[in-house]
């Protein structure tokens, strides 16, 4: 395996398009998978894994590594696709043995079965507390790396998040970067339809975090935001960082973004997959034209 | 009798278990750079825990009144190679933060040691502050180890023994004002029950505060001519099946004693072992009835529910009649 690093934004956009197509192949071959959330989180996750984490497929346990905590555990399939793309696991295994007895790729990720997964998640609202533990461990050892934690906007309804949010700011754990995939849709409700999240950024700020609200579908903006994060300074720590990435569930597939609530979990047949791959290619080319 | 024996103005005193547990924690943190200690607003304004908190800002933490955060932060530290001890009131640890215990400690299989204080009815604060479900709950979680020391000195031995135990452990301690069971040193091994007293007519299999009260009952019954053995079943999971089967074969009559709901606890686990082993024995369970108990201090509640030495002796006497 070689370390995969993509420096330039058009390459990251191209990679995001490939990963989106892989996700849809999972929806075809593995059957019903979480699809809307993984598609909306694809851009920021690709930017992290292929550029900012410095992720090394051959050395996933390096104590000095940047860490990625998948708090929205139902996005496991997104990480599986990235890991397969990097050569860490077999595509056939993912496409044909997903969520099957005795195989590694579960509907929610298990760290013991899938190399590269930091923590086994699935129950929502745990990732930020994991990050706090990692943060203290790194500080204790003088490791100035980052912990990126991917959350969903619906997930933030879980109260346990706010215990960790309060704590991390209180103790200046600025090596934590919370990334909210703000895809505007939970399993049952559109944003604001039930629980009101019109002031999400204000809430994080009020709890003492440094908040960046960005277009989470624009790879140029994602890249600029991640590149501009201040280095971790163990000597004089600042605020923990929250990036609210505004997206739409099903991002990149127009018939899904038109009805995001219908595509929390979904499956595709051959015909639909072919149609979807064309849509993703078109979407990917449109993204490259942005700035 | 009755009333609190600690001062609420220094909350750390409530966690002390006769000072021994705190002293041991301080020693472990100082001597072993991998040991962490996390509390939940129990650090206290002064005293050894506070001093430790000030001295080790990344290894000794207080997450505030946030038990869910406590458990998962501990898991994070364990994943990075540390040995975290997380301590707070049992009910808020094992009931409120059960999702975190189930997923982040047990499913992720990380060596966090939780210390749940005020086990059973020992708090005196009423049902919200009692913990009557740990044995049943922890027994049903894969990868979990559940231990309950019979006195503070044994808890210290457990803390030492826990350092090399591979998976997560839930340690259930009572209020910390309980009498000592052992007056001589002994070997302590997680998962290996201790025969505290030999007897030929009936064996009491007790855990936690039940051990001391069972010994009191045994002395009373000895005078009446009944030979009563007592086993300290300090490890609820993995249960020492051999000790149970041996006792059943020896006396044929077993009485379990636990400060826990009568349903799903030590008594039920012992019954499971007997049934699976196919060993016939008479079994009586002593524990908290399946109800939310009356208000009252433990000194009054235990006798009320027949959980003191006199009450246990009465139940055993009638059962063996």
Automatic annotation (TrEMBL), chain A:
Its cofactor is thiamine diphosphate. Pfam families: Transketolase_N. Residues 29-273 form the Transketolase N-terminal domain. InterPro entries: THDP-binding (IPR029061), Transketolase_N (IPR005474). The keyword Lipoprotein does not apply. PANTHER family: TRANSKETOLASE N-TERMINAL SECTION-RELATED. This is Transketolase. It comes from Denitratisoma oestradiolicum.
TrEMBL record, chain B:
Its cofactor is thiamine diphosphate. The keyword Cytoplasm does not apply. Residues 15-180 form the Transketolase-like pyrimidine-binding domain. InterPro entries: PDH/Transketolase (IPR051157), THDP-binding (IPR029061), Transketo_C/PFOR_II (IPR009014), Transketolase-like_Pyr-bd (IPR005475), Transketolase_C (IPR033248). Keywords: Thiamine pyrophosphate. The keyword Methyltransferase does not apply. Signal peptide: none annotated. It comes from the Bacteria. SMART domains: Transket_pyr. SUPFAM superfamilies: Thiamin diphosphate-binding fold (THDP-binding), TK C-terminal domain-like. Belongs to the transketolase family. This is Transketolase. It comes from Denitratisoma oestradiolicum. The lineage of its organism: Bacteria, Pseudomonadati, Pseudomonadota, Betaproteobacteria, Nitrosomonadales.
């Amino acid at each position: 395996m070689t370390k995969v690093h993509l420096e330039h934004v058009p390459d990251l956009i191209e990679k995001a398009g490939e990963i989106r197509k892989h996700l849809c192949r999972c929806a075809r071959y593995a059957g019903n998978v979480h699809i809307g959330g993984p598609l909306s989180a694809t851009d920021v996750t690709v930017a992290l894994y292929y550029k900012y984490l410095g992720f090394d497929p051959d050395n996933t346990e390096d104590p000095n590594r940047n860490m990625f905590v998948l708090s929205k555990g139902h996005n496991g399939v997104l990480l599986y696709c990235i890991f397969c793309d990097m050569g860490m696991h077999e595509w056939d295994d993912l496409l044909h043995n997903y969520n099957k007895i005795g195989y590694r790729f579960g509907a929610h990720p298990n760290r013991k079965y899938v190399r590269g997964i930091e923590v086994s998640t699935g129950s929502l609202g745990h990732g930020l507390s994991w990050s706090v533990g990692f943060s203290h461990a790194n500080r204790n050892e003088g490791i100035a790396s980052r912990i990126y934690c991917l959350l969903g906007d619906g997930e933030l309804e879980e109260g346990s998040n706010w215990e960790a949010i309060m704590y991390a700011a209180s103790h200046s754990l600025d090596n934590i970067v919370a990334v909210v995939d703000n895809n505007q849709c939970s399993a049952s409700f559109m944003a604001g339809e039930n629980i009101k999240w019109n002031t999400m950024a204000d809430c994080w700020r009020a709890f003492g975090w440094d908040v960046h609200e960005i277009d989470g579908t624009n790879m140029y903006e994602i890249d600029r935001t991640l590149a501009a994060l201040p280095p971790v300074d163990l000597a004089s720590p600042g605020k923990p960082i929250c990036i609210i990435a505004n997206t739409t569930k099903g991002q990149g597939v127009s018939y899904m973004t038109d009805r995001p609530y219908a595509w929390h979990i979904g499956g595709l047949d051959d015909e639909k997959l072919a149609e979807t791959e064309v849509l993703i290619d078109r979407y990917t080319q449109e993204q490259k034209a942005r700035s | 009798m009755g009333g609190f024996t600690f001062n609420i103005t220094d909350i750390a005193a409530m966690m002390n278990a006769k000072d021994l547990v705190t002293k041991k924690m301080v020693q472990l943190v100082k001597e072993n750079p991998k040991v962490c200690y996390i509390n939940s607003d129990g650090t206290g304004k002064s005293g050894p825990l506070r001093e430790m908190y000030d001295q080790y800002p990344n290894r000794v933490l207080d997450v505030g009144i946030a038990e869910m955060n406590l458990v998962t932060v501990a898991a994070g530290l364990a994943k990075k190679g540390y040995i975290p001890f997380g301590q707070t009131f049992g009910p808020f640890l094992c009931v409120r933060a059960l999702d975190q215990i189930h997923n982040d400690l047990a499913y992720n299989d990380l060596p966090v040691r939780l210390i749940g204080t005020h086990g059973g009815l020992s708090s005196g604060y009423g049902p919200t502050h009692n913990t009557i479900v740990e044995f049943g709950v922890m027994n049903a979680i894969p990868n979990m180890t559940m231990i309950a020391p019979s006195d503070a000195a044994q808890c210290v031995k457990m803390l030492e023994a826990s350092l090399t135990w591979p998976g997560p452990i839930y340690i259930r301690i009572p209020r910390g004002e309980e009498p000592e069971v052992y007056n001589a040193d002994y070997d302590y091994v997680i998962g290996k029950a201790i025969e505290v007293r030999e007897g030929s007519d009936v064996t009491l299999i007790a855990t936690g505060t039940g051990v001391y009260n069972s010994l009191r009952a045994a002395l009373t019954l000895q005078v009446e001519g009944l030979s009563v053995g007592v086993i300290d079943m300090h490890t609820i999971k993995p249960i020492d099946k051999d000790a149970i089967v041996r006792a059943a074969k020896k006396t044929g009559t077993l009485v379990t004693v636990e400060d826990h709901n009568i349903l799903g606890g030590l008594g039920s686990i012992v019954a499971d072992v007997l049934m699976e082993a196919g060993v016939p024995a008479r079994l009586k369970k002593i524990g908290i009835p399946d109800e939310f108990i009356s208000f009252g201090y433990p000194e009054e509640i235990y006798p009320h529910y027949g959980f003191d030495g006199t009450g246990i002796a009465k139940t055993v006497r009638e059962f063996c009649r």
